[in-house]
């Protein structure tokens, strides 16, 4: 018997435990979702066995007639899902994930050490947009390119476009990157287009977090203004783990994006495409064109608003004051606590979210905020009232975290973690009670 439970009980058991964890907890990580059974079936299929370096009709391996059909279908569905005219836009569906997709774009249109500007990581940007510290170039993007991040206006929590414009005029970037991992608002694409044009830069949008919302047209459309749009496929889009790069077919700044990007993906940075992922992605992109998907995305936004409103009523400060999309960023510092302690206590209560830096933070390890997203629990069927209840459960967790902080032996995070983990932790009953109600 070759079934997993017989062939490898150890791995089978780990998967069983992880499945149980996923289904028992309140899954509020903004970048996660529950993909469909149909997508999982495609991902777990024989498509994983096949090598197919190259593009449909131009492969370096034989036996690809069905893979060609699959990848072409996936491309067509990708363009249709994002309402794109195939004469104006093309897509590469082979990127292995979001970070490789971004690096492939940089490799395609930049030379080593060309200048880029993306949103700073502590202000909500992604590592792959060029993060570096004063001491270290952290991401490959900042190692191979010169990065000058733009930031939020700390008083409003919104992107400081005036500062972006002033800095771009001095820094002369070749590429400006819109998009973020922890930004609750839409980007001002027309403004960014104007800034990019004024300095002769490409404009790219990394819509990883919001691609499901873009497909459903419930947030602004980056395709109207950008030259290149990248995305992951496993977040709000609800597909398998992967990436895509959309590009304009007309040359931009003298560059044939189609050729440059396709060559950067293969042979530039990747070998054989993950055909099982492309199969799962095609399934996801068919669903992304359905009325059900549009209703789902509308509910994602409505749920996030309900969550934001209830948190506001409970006295929480939200970065930017609210949300236009699927996530809220809560500054918990005014409550007398930090994101790391809140994340830990909520984790013990089966509420899964992540600590996140907020504008003005000093430490990345003990940041002042938490990020909460609505896509996953909306997939599980939550409506506004369940998200109101979720806000209240989070608030209970914060009260426990505050009490634990005041009782811990010292002021350090380590003291807190040790205290919480000790068998004599006096708030164990409160925590178990919260966990039971969550589960
Ligand atoms: N871009 C953005 C905006 C993201 O938030 C993320 C992941 O969180 C990525 C890219 C990277 O995607 P991956 O983790 O698939 O490399």
TrEMBL record:
Example of a GO cellular component annotation carried by this entry: mitochondrion
Residues carrying N6-(pyridoxal phosphate)lysine: 235
EC number: 2.1.2.1
Keyword Iron: no
UniProt domain Serine hydroxymethyltransferase-like: residue ranges: 4-393
GO biological process, one term: glycine biosynthetic process from serine
Reaction(s) this enzyme catalyzes, per UniProt: (6R)-5,10-methylene-5,6,7,8-tetrahydrofolate + glycine + H2O = (6S)-5,6,7,8-tetrahydrofolate + L-serine
Transferase as UniProt keyword: yes
Cofactor dependency: pyridoxal 5'-phosphate
Domain of life, source organism: Eukaryota
Pathway(s) this gene product operates in, as recorded in its UniProt entry: One-carbon metabolism; tetrahydrofolate interconversion
Keyword vocabulary terms for this entry: One-carbon metabolism, Pyridoxal phosphate, Transferase
Record-stated family: Belongs to the SHMT family.
Record-given protein name: Serine hydroxymethyltransferase
């Amino acid at each position: 018997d070759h079934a997993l439970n017989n062939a490898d009980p150890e791995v089978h058991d780990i998967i069983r435990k992880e499945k149980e964890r996923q289904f028992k907890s309140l899954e509020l990580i903004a970048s996660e979702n529950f993909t469909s059974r149909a997508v999982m079936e495609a991902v777990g299929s024989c498509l994983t066995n096949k090598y197919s370096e190259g593009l449909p009709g131009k492969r370096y391996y034989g036996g690809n007639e069905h893979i060609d059909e699959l990848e072409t279908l996936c491309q067509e569905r990708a363009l249709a899902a994002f309402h794109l005219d195939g004469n104006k836009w093309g897509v590469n569906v082979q990127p292995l994930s979001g970070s490789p997709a971004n690096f492939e774009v940089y490799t395609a249109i930049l030379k080593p050490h060309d200048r880029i500007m993306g949103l700073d990581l502590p202000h909500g940007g992604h590592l792959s947009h060029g993060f570096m510290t004063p001491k270290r170039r952290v991401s490959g993007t900042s190692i191979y390119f010169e990065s000058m991040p733009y930031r939020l206006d700390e008083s409003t929590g919104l992107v400081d476009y005036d500062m972006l414009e002033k800095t771009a005029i001095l820094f002369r970037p070749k590429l400006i990157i819109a998009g973020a991992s922890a930004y609750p608002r839409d980007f001002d694409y027309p403004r960014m287009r104007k800034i990019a044009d004024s300095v002769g830069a490409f404009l790219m949008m990394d819509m990883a977090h919001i691609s499901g919302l873009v497909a459903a047209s419930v947030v602004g459309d980056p395709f109207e203004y950008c030259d290149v749009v990248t995305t992951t496929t496993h977040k709000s889009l609800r597909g398998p783990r992967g990436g895509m790069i959309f590009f304009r077919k007309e040359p931009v700044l003298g560059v044939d994006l189609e050729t440059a990007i396709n060559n950067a993906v293969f042979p530039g940075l990747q070998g054989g495409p993950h055909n099982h992922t492309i199969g799962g992605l095609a399934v996801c992109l068919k669903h992304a064109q359905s009325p059900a998907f549009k209703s789902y995305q509308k509910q994602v936004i409505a749920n996030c608003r309900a969550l934001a409103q209830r948190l506001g009523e409970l006295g929480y400060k939200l970065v930017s004051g609210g949300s236009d999309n699927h996530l809220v960023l809560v500054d918990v510092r005014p409550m007398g606590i930090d994101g790391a302690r809140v994340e830990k206590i909520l984790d013990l209560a089966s509420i899964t979210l992540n600590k996140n830096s907020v504008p003005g933070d000093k430490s990345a390890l003990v940041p002042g905020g938490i990020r909460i997203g609505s896509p996953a629990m909306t997939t599980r069927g939550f409506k506004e009232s369940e998200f109101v209840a979720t806000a209240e459960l989070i608030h209970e967790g914060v009260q426990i975290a505050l009490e634990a902080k005041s009782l811990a032996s010292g002021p350090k995070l380590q003291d807190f973690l040790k205290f919480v983990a000790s068998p004599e932790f006096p708030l164990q009953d409160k925590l178990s009670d919260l966990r039971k109600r969550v589960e």
